């Protein structure tokens, strides 16, 4: 019998109260779940929207343990949480997805890469680096990409080391260096698996990165690649969940190289920025899918109903402060354009403040709308610094 | 400048905390609105989901006034609220949609019918009835339908008076009698208008009523009628919002008679059961559309992305008590099937406990799925009476 049906009004604990948590709550309302959220920031987006919002550390074992004690089921919306506490909650009989052991692996980029290598999953060649002395050994392999083991997401802790790199930049060790591949496109696939083993993948997306912000500026689905590449990307995602024996939602970011290879870049075991378009463009949103997976319910269909794009609303590139939004009327006048504001109290340079979804039957008008929307909508900061 | 842009983090007051309020909150999260809800029932579905949930009377002027004082904008999810209080809040400078004057008219079925007659909008012939003595005057016109002036929705206060009616049934006066028309189908159109005058209508739906419950059992969109009928239904909805100078969302329920006439049955100035499929089947959901309208933002496209159906989940026909739901796995296994549970603490006979949305490209499989779902999913009542 599935988790959902074993008890009325299940209490779902979510570690992290950001936009992913907020959109998960929107989906959880359909299932009448009681959602309890933990976040260190008293002004996090989930405040006011969660049934219960608790302020506390995600890294501290005692904080996570005491938060989870009265939950039936626990999940995350950010990886950087105390996995030991989740393991203890799991031992207490709570349903915890993703598995805390996988979480521990994903939190460490060195372990992540080692996992791909061990399982013969294609990824850029890499070498572990413990300190700055070791790093010098790789001078002959430049250009490289340095990735700090524990540094987080959105490009934090990632640094390109060019041919003329002087080995004097401050880097956070331990980490790894990765061969700098010639990237044609960056792709992502969201895949879900429930405890019964049912697995479904979404059509891939193409992600276009912000030239300065080092995070997704917009994405489009389906991507403009040959069908064989889409099939390859989906097949890698299926191999990953199988090798991981994964339950929940997994976002797989990939490089399509100029040589036509598909390489796994990194994974996130949770709803992901690369799946926000699914709320409106696909038959089942990634947030509902995540819930279906962790509740052990049958998974939803993933097909695109229409072509979709998602443009991230990024904080003002220079100023920080209380945000106001400019251009909302202009963009909502465009057919098939929708706003999702995250309600963050403070804007910071390139911070994700919201996103805009665009739907269109025609590829050309979809792409035109992406550029219209990017230019028409801005985050402004009052009395910003 | 539209309402939304005049202030950051608008506070939206919603009178009524039922399922319509809950689904409105889901949409309001996208716009980062602060949603404050008033409902007399401390266990209403919006509890826990609204940013603020206040327990209090919707009918009492002081209760509604004090609730609305700190809101920027007010709306309703049920018509039976104190319209005088809303008028006072409007005079205080709050944006109140729908207009309290229209609300006053809609609350009184006699005024509603008089409005149609005055504006030459097609509706079944009717006569006002003040008391049981007057009712006797209409014996020669049987069969009739008696409608109490203030009796509410879902068939409450509506009684069919057949040819052999004995004029001894207890009826709530004043009211009206209406000629009993030969109904081929019941249709509904949802239409939205913003303060700038922009107006959009949704494709019509066909509603099929529960033989005992006297409320919608399921609906399907588009309806199986000639295009000329759809056009006529939409045109009546446009005439209505124009004559009413309406702002907000209006649901227009209509009869398609066996002679092929389209007659207005009744209206609801708010999101409506006949629009629940729009959350997943149409380009913009009725709840987002309601918000766009009352915030004076450009309205969203209303086209169906795919054919849609909605099946109401009704309370056990005999027993009342704490509900449990049976058959969730079975229905979610069917492609394109989605659950929306309202979280009502108590099930009562034919009470709306949730709904199921079904999407399909093919009409025939859509209809098959409606019947599969109706049979597979049930509300059970533990220790029910």
Task: Give an overview in words.
Two copies of one chain form a homodimer. With 385 residues, chain A is an alpha+beta fold. Helices cover 28% and strands 29% of the residues of chain A. Chain A contains twelve helices and 20 strands. In chain A, strands 10, 11, 12, 13, 14, 15, 16, 18 and 19 form a nine-stranded antiparallel β-sheet that branches. A five-stranded parallel β-sheet of chain A has the order 3-2-1-4-5, sandwiched between helices. Chain A has a four-stranded antiparallel β-sheet with strand order 6-9-7-8. In chain A, β10 and β11 form a beta hairpin. In chain A, α2 crosses α10 and α3 packs parallel to α4. Chains A and B meet through α2, β17, α11 and β18 of A and α2, β17, α11 and β18 of B.
CA(first)-CA(last) distance of chain A: 55 Å
Structural class of chain A: alpha+beta
DSSP helical segment count of chain A: 12
**Overall average pLDDT of chain A:** 95
Low-pLDDT runs of chain A: none
Beta-strand percentage range of chain A: 25-35%
Gyration radius of chain A (Cα, Å) is 21 Å
* Percent range of helical residues of chain A: 25-40%
Q: How does the overall form of chain A come out from the CA principal axes?
A: globular
Number of strands of chain A: 20
Sheet of most strands of chain A: 9 strands, antiparallel
